[in-house]
Amino acid sequence: MSGFEVERRDKENISCLYVKGFLDAHTAPQFEEAIQNLVDEERFKIIVNLCDLTYISSAGLGVFMGFIEDIRSKGGDLKLSNMTSKVYKVFDLLGFPNLYEIYEDENEAVDKYQKA
Amino acid sequence: MTSRKYTLKIPSQTDNLEIIRDFIFKIAEKNGLSGEIAGSIELAVDEACTNVIKHAYSFNEKENVRITVNVSSKRITISIVDHGSGFDPESFKTNSIDKRIRERESSGYGIFLMQKLMDEVSFDIHPDQKNEVRLIKYLK
Asked: What value does the mean pLDDT take over residues A69-78?
């Protein structure tokens, strides 16, 4: 039991990753692999739903940072949704809300992709 | 309140970060700190220990990280000690963090987070002898 799970659901050309548990230096490679798989399949419209993420450290934040430029340069994005206040606080400490689109609900992120 | 001291010596593995976080969070809670402050301290200690595991010991699982927590009525002090290769804390100052974010670097945010989360962060680095990170949170 690694304390972290990631589940993927594809909705047409949008892929949603549901992350659960804690994202630290031990589990970050698992999350990185999930995003890398999407990039390899050229699925660049990604939503990460964080509703069941209980904890994140800078190792987890680094995964978002490692992919964002590449994904945006391919016309996609990494949009985040359903973040708890505890997890949002860590994003906020680094000023990440200025870099990423963060939505209260996953459907808002889906709408944004569909209307783009 | 007399001061209380807790010590954890644990193998240098990322798998043990969860145990380290539980250790810190439970001590903070047991000593009456709010969940929010306990969470901040937990994250700062995670960042310090991640640096030791990754950088000081380069994932060598035979090495150990020693964490000592002192709680008094005025403050909680956490000392993280390793005997690894050390690093230059100056290279992680705030201006270099802005640069890291601008350049979308995927690592190097740990010390910055520690400084944001704690009241005092200090380093005593003696590579391959003894390196110590000291984190302090003042209690109201």
From this structure: 96
Quickly tell me which residue has 């939503």 as its tokens. A47
CA end-to-end distance (rounded Å), chain B = 14
* Beta-carbon pairs below 8 A across chains A and B: 61
CATH number of A4-108: 3.30.750.24
Q: How many domains does chain B have?
A: 1
- Which band of pLDDT confidence, cut at 50, 70 and 90, is reported for residue B140? confident
- Note whether B114 and B135 are within 8 A (CB): yes
Q: Which amino acid is at A69?
A: E
Report, as an integer, the average pLDDT of B43-54.
96
Is A24's Cβ below 8 Å from some Cβ in B?
A: yes
Question: Nearest-CA distance from B12 to chain A in Å?
Answer: 12
Q: What residue of A is the nearest CA neighbor of B102? A: A99
- What is the spatial distance between Cα A62 and Cα B104, in angstroms, rounded to a whole number? 9
Contacts of B14 in chain A (CB under 8 A): 24-26
The confidence score (pLDDT) of residue B1 equals 66
Which CATH number belongs to the domain containing residue B134 in this structure?
Answer: 3.30.565.10
Q: Which of A104, A97, A55, A74 is nearest to B38 (CA)?
A: A55
Two tokens at A28?
A: 């970050």
Q: Which of residues 68-87 of B touch A (CB under 8 A)?
A: none
Three-class DSSP category at A55? strand
Q: C-alpha distances in angstroms, B42 versus A12, B18, B27, B48, B82?
A: 40, 10, 10, 10, 18
The yes/no answer to whether this complex scores an ipTM above 0.95 is no
Which residue does chain A place closest to B15, by CA atoms?
A26
Stretch A70-74: mean pLDDT, rounded? 96
